[in-house]
């Protein structure tokens, strides 16, 4: 009798034990997948990406996961006018996108330390950078320099954080690669080579580059890339160091770190200062100016993320007064 009871108990144990090779069950009626699908007014573009890639099935699993969801307006600002535009996007692009917006585990971003650009690894293996800071008595959270607009929406298997921009997954590993891949930075890339600074931008960093585009170099007196290549390397090195900052700075970081004057100074690699001005209190970006510039330099492209820093492209060469 005892032997039969023991066998029955063992059979009951193994029949109830979870199969580790199967997705763990969760409450489907309150799962991340359900919450995302149910919020069609805000999340239908992201849900379309999940449907096309079949990645949405992941959010029925136990997880837990934290999903960073760009709202519909964010998708439209990123060039996807309708859900159909998302549906016809390349599968590889959407797959990279949804994985870059997904984190393993529960991430209550408002519980992070008050610090700039704290690295977090996504399920794709790539990093993103979270800032938790106080501005004008308001607590602000950004991811890769973009605002988090709604925090900690709960689901049975995780959390949703809503953001106002579609995050761009890393395309280039290093800043050196990002510069070389950008067709408007041919002159700047030649200058880096001539100055022997390519290895610096292949290093650990982090660095922030304000790179003048080709038109900026031409306006500064370099009519061709050959004219750059024929310039004294020491001269180019001094010039380039005035365009590089020894930390990671997204555009909105300046809005968080600048006082009511709307202006701040930052020390570049050559130990000289540039002036950063907020546009519309930082909500419309920044300009940057050297002591020798008569007008501020405008950003024509910003927040290009790599593993060792951030690249911004500007429309003029930063100049110093000597």
Automatic annotation (TrEMBL):
GO terms for cellular component: extracellular space. Pfam families: Fasciclin. Residues 30-167, 172-318 form the FAS1 domain. PROSITE patterns: FAS1, PROKAR_LIPOPROTEIN. It comes from the Bacteria. Signal peptide: none annotated. This is Fasciclin. It comes from Chitinophaga flava.
């Amino acid at each position: 009798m005892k032997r039969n009871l023991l066998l029955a108990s063992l059979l009951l144990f193994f029949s109830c034990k979870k199969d580790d090779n199967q997705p763990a069950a969760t409450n489907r009626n309150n799962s991340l997948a359900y919450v995302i699908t149910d919020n069609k007014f805000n999340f239908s573009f992201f849900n379309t990406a999940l449907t096309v890639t079949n990645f949405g099935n992941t959010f029925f699993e136990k997880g837990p996961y934290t999903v960073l969801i760009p709202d519909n307006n964010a998708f439209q600002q990123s060039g996807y006018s309708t859900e159909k535009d998302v549906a016809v996007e390349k599968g590889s692009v959407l797959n990279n996108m949804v994985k870059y917006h997904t984190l393993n585990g529960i991430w209550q971003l408002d519980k992070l330390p008050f610090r700039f650009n704290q690295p977090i690894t996504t399920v794709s293996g790539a990093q993103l950078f979270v800032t938790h800071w106080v501005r004008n008595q308001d607590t602000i959270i950004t991811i890769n320099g973009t605002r988090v607009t709604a925090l900690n929406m709960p689901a049975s298997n995780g959390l949703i954080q809503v953001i106002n921009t579609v995050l761009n997954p890393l395309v280039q590993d290093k800043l050196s690669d990002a510069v070389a891949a950008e067709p408007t930075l041919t002159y700047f890339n030649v200058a880096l080579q001539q100055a022997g600074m390519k290895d610096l931008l292949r290093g650990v960093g982090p660095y922030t580059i304000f790179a003048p585009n080709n038109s900026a170099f031409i306006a500064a007196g370099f009519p061709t890339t050959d004219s750059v290549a024929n310039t004294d390397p020491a001269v180019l090195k001094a010039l380039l160091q005035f365009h590089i900052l020894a930390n990671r700075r997204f555009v909105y970081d300046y809005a968080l770190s600048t006082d009511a004057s709307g202006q701040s100074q930052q020390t570049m690699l050559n130990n000289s200062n540039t002036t950063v001005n907020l546009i519309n209190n930082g909500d419309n970006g920044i300009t940057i100016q050297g002591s020798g510039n008569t007008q501020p330099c405008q950003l024509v492209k910003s927040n290009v993320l790599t593993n060792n820093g951030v690249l911004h492209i500007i429309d003029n060469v930063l100049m110093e007064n000597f």
